[in-house]
Design goal:
The chain is α/β, with parallel strands linked by helices. Helices cover about 30% and strands about 25% of the residues. Strands 3-1-6-7-11-10 form a 6-stranded mixed beta sheet, sandwiched between helices. Strand 10 and strand 11 form a beta hairpin. Helix 3 packs across helix 4. About 45% of the residues are buried.
């Protein structure tokens, strides 16, 4: 498979698994993944948070790792990328306030490029106004935002995925196997071992 570039949006307190796993898995199958964060450059880090499901009414949050960015947000040219990955965690709640982040997301939606979002990552898509008429899933607490932005929210099990054309969404990190596989399919990749 020829190397293709993917863009991954990050921010402080992004969910640890939701950034680490796709970042590594997509590279393992031949993609160059550029992890970026507004106001940060290659070599800077973002803090991650581990969200877990331990029988409470909502997830718990614990400190995660420092994740090193490998590209600079200021240098991002969306046309250079074949697809976009938007992890969850707490980062989306403030990344969605950045107009350039929203413009980047709009590029992928307008150009019908594969777009994978998980958990709270849908907050950014809702803020960008790209969910109107689309069917997606997310962490259930994001359902009202999806609906208020004109999207159709479907509940899925934590380990399931929803695909609507180029839009690949999942509720949380337990869905990684299905979510990443569906994103690869949307990218036109085939993986054989």
């Amino acid at each position: 498979m020829a190397e293709k570039q993917l863009l991954l949006l990050a921010g402080d307190f992004v969910e640890d698994y939701e950034i680490m796993v796709p970042f590594q898995a997509l590279q393992a199958v031949g993609y160059s993944v550029h992890a970026v964060c507004p106001d940060k450059k290659a070599g800077d880090t973002v803090r991650t948070a581990v969200h877990d499901f331990e029988g409470n009414q909502t997830y718990t949050e614990k400190p995660g790792h420092n994740f090193t960015l490998n590209a600079s947000f200021a240098d991002v040219q969306p046309a250079d990328y074949a697809g976009l990955v938007v992890p969850g965690g707490r980062a989306p709640e403030y990344l969605r306030l950045n107009e350039r982040v929203l413009d980047v997301v709009r590029h992928f939606a307008t150009e019908q490029k594969p777009l994978a979002a998980i958990c709270h990552g849908l907050q950014i898509l809702a803020a960008a106004g790209v969910l109107e008429g689309r069917t997606c899933t997310a962490y259930p607490a994001c359902g009202p935002e999806v609906r208020n932005s004109g999207g159709t929210f479907v509940e899925r099990a934590a380990d399931d995925v929803n695909v609507d054309g180029n839009l690949v969404t999942a509720p949380a990190w337990p869905a990684h196997p299905k979510w990443i596989a569906a994103f690869l399919k949307a990218l036109g990749a085939s993986v054989t071992i």
